[in-house]
Amino acid sequence: MKLLSGLLTGLLLTCGGFARADESTAQFYGWSPDGRSVAFLESHVLSDSSGAIYTTLTIVDSGKNTVLNTYVAEFEPFDTQLNDAQIIQLTTRKVIKQALPVLTRLKISDGRGGTVVWKPALQNRSDDLDQKFQVQIREQLWRFELSHKDYAPNQKCPTNGSPYPARGLTLSVTSFPQPSTTVTTTLQADGARLPARRQCAQGYFAVEVRVQGDYLAVLLAITRPSGFEGGNLMNYMLVTGRRPTP
Questions:
Q1: DSSP letter at 94?
Q2: Where does the signal peptide begin and end (predicted)?
Q3: What DSSP string describes 21-53?
Q4: For residue 220, what is the enclosing H or E element?
Q5: Which residues pair with 48 in a beta bridge?
Q6: Does 48 score more than 90 pLDDT?
Q7: How far is it, in rounded angstroms, from Cα 37 to Cα 214?
Q8: Which of 223, 244, 207, 243 is nearest to 40 (CA)?
Q9: What is the pTM of this model?
Q10: Is 97 helix (H, G, I), strand (E, B) or coil?
Q11: Helix (H, G, I), strand (E, B) or coil at 122
Q12: H or E segment to which residue 176 belongs
């Protein structure tokens, strides 16, 4: 219970009081012992008339960079006396309960958070959507590069003005196993069509990198226009793969 309590506290602290419309936050839930499976939590407070709050738990196959399962728990606080933080606690517990059989089978535990190897205190966003950063783990150096790919504008997507190109991503990591030797691994490269969940994506940026066993996971934020007072919405995804070898 202490581990779950700590997980909930971390999720709530990153919510920042939900001062803006349609706020969202995400964090790692846990890994399997070998790192082959990983799960993360994502919570949203909707600004529409429902005022709904929901939490999702997504389980990913780290080796295949493939979503295995996604669970959703929603709460519509019509006349409740509960505040947003209390409702997020309820939806988080509910979604974990839904996912528990699969979490147990895959041996994913909230007490096994993996090792945080990169998590900047501040997100310095520039006009350039692409992102480069490096991670130093003892004698190992990893350089990550996130680039964007434009797709045709989706006329069904909300905008904050004029239509914009939907965007996909390519994420790679370069390691240096020997002096004057580099090995670049592409963790994800979107193809001819974007997945349905990202048809309105405008940009991506990395917020955290963790490792467990032979695997790594990069938590990415996905931004898109809300069509409401020039604001943006945010969702999250994991990109996973084998960690570079020394």
A1: H
A2: 1-21
A3: TTEEEEEEEEE-TTSSEEEEEEEEE--STT--E
A4: strand 215-225
A5: none
A6: no
A7: 11
A8: 207
A9: 0.86
A10: helix
A11: coil
A12: strand 165-178
Nearest-Å Rg of the Cα atoms of the chain is 18
Count CB-CB contacts under 10 A for residue 163: 12
Place of tokens 């994502």: 42
Which residue carries 């914009």 as its tokens? 164
Q: Residue 149: CA atoms inside 13 Å, Cβ hemisphere, count? A: 13
* Model pLDDT for residues 71-99, shown as the tens digit of each residue: 999 987 665 778 888 888 999 999 999 99
Contacts for 112-116 with beta carbons within 8 Å, 24 or more apart? 112/30, 112/31, 112/32, 112/33, 112/212, 113/28, 113/30, 113/31, 113/210, 114/28, 114/30, 114/31, 114/35, 114/38, 114/210, 114/211, 114/212, 114/217, 115/210, 115/211, 115/212, 116/208, 116/209, 116/210
Nearest 5 degrees, angle CA 46-CA 27-CA 18? 30
Over 50: is that where the pLDDT of 231 sits?
yes
CB 9 within 8 A of CB 1: no
pLDDT tens digits for range 132-151 = 999 988 888 999 999 999 99
How far is the CA of 7 from the CAs of 22, 24, 37, 72, in angstroms?
22, 16, 18, 17
Nearest Cα neighbor of 133 from 203, 35, 186, 205 is 205
Cα(129)–Cα(239) distance, rounded to whole angstroms?
17
List, in sequence order, every residue forming a beta bridge with 146; answer none if it has no partner.
131, 171
**Phi, psi for 94 (deg, rounded to 5):** -65, -45
Q: What is the dihedral of CA 105, 208, 73, 61, to 10 degrees?
A: -30
Which DSSP state fits 109?
Answer: B
What is the rounded distance in angstroms from the CA atom of residue 213 to the CA atom of residue 9? 26
